[in-house]
């Protein structure tokens, strides 16, 4: 029966070496894959990040998982993320399926209450976003958008040069 605090020095050495090498390999694979891998996360990016962390933990802690197997998993996950983002850039349908679509929460002074409830956003969160954008009065807001990353973007009436800002054309519920 093994001791839960210490088995042998070779186990500690293996854990150290595999963790060091696994971490270095993960950093290398992420750096090779490009800046997009480290950008603000949508749901797909979040899933890949969790999977990479789980894989690294398995490599580090399980003697049944070889470092080479972990390298294949790292490369496969990063490769899939690269493929999906490549397709997303080229095909809008893929982008919407994988990353979602920004949603309009307020437009021209009208809060879209049903959308706010559906997206589980509070008025306090909208107020925080306004304050972060140096807007003291919601009447000074042209539009508020819930981005695919979960960020709330506030567009001031003073920065909007047209009746319909061009940056809102891909936003769900935007009256085109």
UniProtKB/TrEMBL annotation:
Keyword Membrane belongs to the record: yes
Positions of transmembrane segments: 12-30, 42-59, 65-87
Top-level taxon of origin: Bacteria
InterPro entries: DUF421, UPF0702_alpha/beta_dom_sf, YetF_N
Membrane topology label: Multi-pass membrane protein
YetF C-terminal domain segment(s): 90-163
Keyword Transmembrane: yes
Family: Belongs to the UPF0702 family.
Name of the featured protein: DUF421 domain-containing protein
UniProt lineage: Bacteria, Pseudomonadati, Bacteroidota, Sphingobacteriia, Sphingobacteriales
């Amino acid at each position: 029966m093994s001791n839960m605090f210490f088995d042998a020095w070779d186990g500690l050495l293996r854990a150290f070496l595999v963790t060091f090498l696994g971490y270095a390999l993960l950093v290398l694979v992420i750096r090779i894959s490009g800046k997009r891998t480290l950008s603000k996360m949508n749901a797909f990016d979040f899933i890949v990040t969790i999977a990479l962390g789980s894989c690294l933990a398995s490599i580090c802690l399980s003697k049944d998982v070889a470092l080479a197997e972990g390298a294949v998993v790292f490369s496969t996950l990063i490769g899939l993320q690269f493929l999906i983002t490549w397709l997303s850039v080229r095909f809008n349908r893929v982008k919407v399926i994988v990353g979602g679509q920004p949603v309009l929460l307020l437009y021209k002074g009208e809060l879209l209450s049903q959308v706010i409830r559906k997206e589980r956003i509070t008025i306090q969160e909208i107020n925080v976003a306004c304050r972060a954008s140096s807007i003291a009065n919601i009447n000074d807001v042209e539009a508020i958008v819930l981005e695919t990353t979960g960020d709330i973007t506030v567009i001031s009436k003073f920065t909007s040069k047209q009746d319909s800002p061009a940056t809102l054309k891909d936003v769900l519920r935007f009256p085109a």
